[in-house]
Amino acid sequence: GRLEAVTQQMGYHPQYLDSFLKMQHYLMHMDGPLPFDCRHYIAIMAAARHQCRYLVNLHVLQFLRAGGDPQWLRGLDFIPPKLRNLNEINKILAHRPWLITKEHIEKLLKISEWSWSLAELVHAVVLLAHCHALTSFVFGCGCEQDEGPGGRGSLKPLSPGNQCFCEATAGNGCSQELLRINRKRSLDSCMELDSLRERIQRIHVETEGREDTRLLQQDREEGEGQGRRWRCSDPSAGLSPLADTDGEVTGATNLACYMQDPDFGYQDFSRRDEDQTQVFRIQDYSWEDHGFSLVNRLYSDIGHLLDEKFRMVDGLQSSAMAKRQGCEPSVFKRGIWNYIHCMFGIRYDDYDYAEVNQLLERMLKVYIKTVTCYPEKTNPEMFDRFWKQFKHSEKVHVNLLILEARMQAELLYALQAITQYMI
């Protein structure tokens, strides 16, 4: 009955958690342009860019439960070309979203056997941005799994370990009804990794005695292109995708198989080629005036759910944090938000960026940049170290701001490129 760790951390801010779960449920499990198994595979690809085993393993299990082909879990070489073609914008959005152009969009939408529709692409873009940003939260709050003596799948203990997950910021105490609702609504909460290993072991046992991996791969290569539009699995395939050469089930150990060009990472926006990449001015293309309407038109209702989540994180109380810095809560939160967007080349003409250095201490800036730009380099000690005088719920609040600011930044670049393609 233990809640999934991300939900547990977000539970420090129950209203935001409710908004987050509604959006994620709609994105992953309700009617939409993409097949359900493909949604989870795209999530695997996105989480793998930041080496986030925690999210990869959760979505591997959900991929299998959705009827996904286990052969796909061997890596990008075993999936349909249509999905594999998404790798380039996955890589760029995860690390340097300012490089996205209308040419990337056009390449995916061009008429061919493996072309994407606009609606499918918007669904995929929202999925990628959501999962990239969620990896920042996972690493930022120490939810990433521990590869300790207990084996893969055990999570790092949360801090404080004996505190109720939904500590009420208003002092109302923990609501048992909220606990019940969140357990029911979080579709990830039951995704224990021992269950994942059992499922993979079952697949392995069922397929024991078949041709060895190399023959299967050879057969697949010879028959490539014979499958359906989305599902091009080899009917004879079936060795456990997560088994090693000796047949031992090890879990999702080799995340490299889910990505290409692993050395491609974040680069300071200031180091860009200025002849090709300009500063993104929010006055020219904003979520409120442009992104919201486009995404809602091509993927019905997701715009409203995303907008609610952005507004919810903006409305979270931060009076204690702001008071320590001697400013208004709105000023403090805007400083964090604009600093994150600045790292991705997004500028607000009406903002004085000198405020960032005045409002944010150096250690906090280092923490925010690490969690935002290369979350896989974050360690649990960083969460404990930064701003020791702050409560756990306040640190979670900072990570929620990182999650939402990063997601909106990726969406703005991708949706602007789609808009330019459409024009």
From TrEMBL:
It catalyses: a hydroperoxide + L-cysteinyl-[protein] = S-hydroxy-L-cysteinyl-[protein] + an alcohol. One of its GO terms (biological process) is positive regulation of macroautophagy. Its main location: cytoplasm. Residues 211-227 have a biased composition (Basic and acidic residues). Keywords: Cytoplasm, Oxidoreductase. GO terms for molecular function: L-leucine binding; oxidoreductase activity, acting on peroxide as acceptor. One of its GO terms (cellular component) is cytoplasm. Transmembrane segments: none annotated. Residues 211-245 are annotated as: Disordered. PANTHER family: P53 REGULATED PA26 NUCLEAR PROTEIN SESTRIN (PTHR12474), SESTRIN 3 (PTHR12474:SF1). This is SESN3 protein.
